[in-house]
Amino acid sequence: MSNVEAEPAEVRCGALVHGGRPTETPRVEVLPAREVPLGGPRAMSVRRTLPQRARTLIGAWCFADHYGPDDVAATGGMDVPPHPHTGLQTVSWLFSGEIEHRDSLGSHAVVRPGELNLMTGGYGISHSEVSTEGTTVLHGAQLWVALPEAHRNTGRDFQHYAPEPVRVDGAEIRVFLGSLAGDVSPVRTFTPLLGAQIILEPQAAITLAVDAGFEHGLLVDSGEVRLADTLLRPADLGYVHPGVGALTLVNESDAPARTILLGGTPFEEEIVMWWNFIGRSHGDIEQAREDWAAGRRFGEVQGYDGDPLPAPELPLAPLKPRGRGR
Fold first, then answer.
1. Strand, coil or helix: 27
2. Exposed e or buried b for every residue in 49-82, given b needs 16+ CB within 10 A?
3. What pTM does this model have?
4. Averaged pLDDT, groups of 10, the chain, 326 residues long
């Protein structure tokens, strides 16, 4: 999905355990979402939890939009024209509905619930996203991963993966990136990452072993979930610092609770993210914008009926790189 705000702001981004709780209760920061209206022919509103002032990045995860359930008959669904990306990977994950994906690599795929579509922008790629005619309710998450300097100009790529569900102690887990609960995703990333959907049965509790070198974020889609000793409500993202080797999740609801667990090693490089670009300097962003306007670098999306999305104007003040912060 494009970060198609009308006036996008500069963003500086810097084995299962059975029984018992972690020996030390993690400190959890609650990051509430903010409503962001997106542009394009069919405007839609999303709940954005990354980036924000309190926490701009979790591992290399630098962007998290959470949208729906959206009644397509009332809103028209999703129709995002061809738009560019550079310096990042996009991770599409749906709870309901379908989205048709086309990109300048020549990929033509349908994003379906419980299946991962990961696109690598690298030096430059463009793509379109349109909800399918059969979609009645659109609901899901769009996530971005910052590429490290050594790989940020890598070639275009597209990967699709449908993880099998793993059942553990009243929970269903689908691991789409990294490893968790004994399951490992084969999808390639350029930094160590974790991405998994966890659905908890009513009142279920689960303790999962995680990489203590990672920082983690739990995004709640539905239900009320206690992470360690902190209650998270729908659209909240709970952040846990590195150094924690186990996470306890408790569904406080009388209905199933759905969450997405994100993680990764702290991303120490300074980066600049603006619109759909990630670079290391104002010049990087300016050049990417010029290349998109001139029809260079990002290729062409075949099969989309409409014009590409124009880039917004850059802010007057130079974009400055920043680290990950606190």
1. coil
2. bbbeeebbbbbbbbbbbbbbebebeeeebbbbbb
3. 0.91
4. 52 39 73 79 76 88 94 91 97 98 97 97 97 96 97 97 96 98 97 98 97 98 97 97 97 97 95 94 97 97 96 93 64
